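Q: what does this look like with 4'-deoxy-4'-aminopyridoxal-5'-phosphate bound?
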Amino acid sequence: MTPALPYTSLSPAELAAELASLRSQYAELVAKDLSIDITRGVPSTAQLDLSADLLTLPAGEYRDGDGVDCRNYGGVLGLRELREIFAELLEVPSANLVAGNNSSLELMHNLIVESLLHTPVDGAAPWAADPNRKFLCPAPGYDRHFAVTADLGFELVPVRMLADGPDVDQVAELIAEDPSVKGMWLVPTYSNPTGTIISEQTIRKLLALPAAAPDFRLVLDNAYALHPIVGDSPVGRPFLAWAEEAGLPNRPLVFASTSKITLAGSGVSFFAASKANLDWHLARAGKRSIGPDKLNQLRHVLFFRDAAGVRAHMRRHKELLAPKFALVLKILEDRLGSAKIASWTEPQGGYFVSLDVLPGTAREVVRLAKEAGVALTPAGATFPHGADPQDANIRIAPTFLPESKLADAIEATSTCALLAAAEKLAEGNAG
Ligand code: PMP
């Protein structure tokens, strides 16, 4: 049992007794011989099954509403009908939206590589010409974003993530004088991993800040735009229109995909941007490929029919996910609430819960969990170069596991968080 007192107010003798109890709880945990992987935010089998009918489509039909034979080459923009459905959902004009293949991460990678090799719209030179090029990384954030820009030779500059989004004052300072800062990652809705809905005010400020680089880009990865767990998705997020109003229409590059809507490995990706950016990109994309997988796009048109069809589908995901998130939050509160050695987010949507354990113990918690057969996302993964200055943040991905295993994983994580905290505080007493 965890005492109903914060660990920091326990006397040395009480803390020693608590530590002894936690060590025996941990020994019991190890004896259970669990084998659970909760490392990545992937949809569960039941979620994938929601899209089972996709696999029977297009069922003999291979022309879209415009009569395009989707089996053939061509159509670098993607199918009009699909672009119209998602333009409505993403609140961008369909003329500014392209539909691609199965991965938006690949599209983001492409856009950055293109910017390294060719002078971007408004820019003075290809980004590769600048050996000091930098990218701003709100942290905690998405490890694969950070990996793309690290791999392509950018220095990753962490930006503090506050309760309502990145620290705009810090961004303003970083970009005002330094033309080597080329861009910034941002997940605007239900951020990975904190679940933050970045406010309209913050995004508008980021779209308008003076930047030394004329081609500074805000990468708005809207991977979770349509993924509420509690309530409805935030509405009215027309990022391209806001950028135009700010007089910097070419600053935002907006991405999304159906990876967490239909099939994670076989969905459709989207890219939205100003006409100038889109034309610039299509000039490269048209050389790389003679067109996307239009049959898969047609499958998605036939499956959803319209934007309301996508919304109805997302309600089914919500029904599957809401109990899992509620379970995680309940166990964290029951096990960690009174000890006051940890805090965590209570996301309204998205795929993650962000857990902050006692500073200086996240690596130890992950190590203890691994020894007990529970694989957590590596500590530090949510920070550029895997370096969490506080060694506190752990990303929890509740979506994939069935509820019984999820409960085991979060119980185990809680035991490890308490044990690591008690060990650390006891060390302090000893010192
Ligand atoms: N962006 C974010 C923020 C994500 O969390 C993920 C998946 N974990 C992706 C992009 C990957 O998107 P896609 O499958 O379209 O490449």
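The chain has a mean pLDDT of 95. The longest helix spans residues 307-336.
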